[in-house]
Design brief:
Blueprint: E1 4-7, H1 14-26, E2 31-33, E3 40-44, H2 48-58, E4 67-69, E5 80-81, H3 85-94, E6 99-105, H4 111-114, E7 119-123, H5 128-137, E8 141-142, H6 157-164, E9 170-173, E10 184-187, E11 194-197, H7 203-210, E12 214-215, H8 217-220, E13 241-246, H9 250-263, E14 268-272, H10 274-278, E15 286-290, H11 295-311, E16 316-320, H12 328-338, E17 343-347, E18 350-355
Parallel strand pairs: 1-9, 2-9, 4-7, 6-10, 11-12, 13-16, 13-17, 14-15, 14-16
Antiparallel strand pairs: 2-3, 3-8, 4-8, 5-6, 6-7, 10-11, 17-18
The structure holds threonylcarbamoyladenylate and magnesium ion.
Amino acid sequence: MQTKLWLLNKEKNLDEQLKEAAELIKKGELVAFPTETVYGLGADGLNSDACRGIFAAKGRPADNPLILHIAKLEEIYPLSTNLSASAKRMMEVFWPGPLTMIVNKSELIPQVVTAGLETVAIRFPSNPVANRLIALSGCPIAAPSANKSGRPSPTTAGDVLADMEGVIAGVIDGGTCDIGVESTIVDTTVPVPTILRPGGITREMLEDALGAVEIDPGLIKKGQIPKAPGMKYRHYAPQAEMYLIEGPEASQQIKNFVELAVGKGLHIGVLADKKTISLLPADDRIISHNWGSTKAELAEKLYIYLRRFDREKVDLIVGEGTTEADLGLAIMNRMRKSAGHNILWAEKGKLVKQSGKTPDFFPENLLK
Ligand code: TXA
Ligand code: MG
């Protein structure tokens, strides 16, 4: 299949430029489009065959339900039943925006969208291209992130093509996504609204609007299954093995780690703070990406850097942790998953293994 690419021109009429893509959605084809979080792989959310196409294109496990995207607040009503007070409050405060709500589904929703669950995920994105595409298609658009299952989500049209060229009908190029990590998912069907996936709308923002908010224990505790089926899979993964170093002395320990790797002749990718990078020796086997001065900047660039390390063909990657406040919760969730939970803690002159494995070259005696 020849994948069409529509490069949007801000000077021209948006609806005109989206017409062909919307026609393809109406016909049951798959079209990738930008949102404020990441690129989505869209299909008519009320057409079961079209939605099955999404699973096939991504290689997505059938037990992982899809998010339905809407273009107006009131479009949630026919898709849901018994909206809770917290759901209504969140719609008012955070929509349109990077928030997905889990609500009780109505009879309109095909089985394949919810993977057999009684609830459905709904999001009203703020990106104007997404908004007009949904409106012109005349249906809710089912859209997971537009990557092959398990790969980092795409935040540019080029990254979509890298995974989906030849597999889907088209890609709308609307530039780089602002937020860079996927939407916050909140279960609104339980007595206390519960974060199933941290994202652009932070826990602090939700608490301000709603009072008490919980975090799905499956996101934090080992051995507990997450309530969002997609959160249990290894995810967001670059090709090279990745390790995460967290803790108060992460900078110094990243330097030691990098020097050990380079000493073994390995090419290493480093994703760290400017200060940490400044400690590293000049060596062309070290490819470092500075994660920026704010958490928003790190979130925006995280997947771009992980995908860049793939193209740079590094042998391994080491990332530096940040605190879990604000956007840090989403960033650390994604970084830990990217690293397959290979996590080391740096404190008091030592590195302590927290979970996962350590690289072969790493002498056990350097760990506690
Ligand atoms: O920012 C985003 O949310 C992006 C853009 C394209 O909107 N979409 C996205 O979709 O990240 P996806 O499919 O990659 O992630 C959807 C997550 C999965 O973890 C899935 O298991 C969960 O939402 N989910 C969907 N329906 C659910 C439900 N009824 N109950 C619990 N989790 C659900
Ligand atoms: Mg995804």
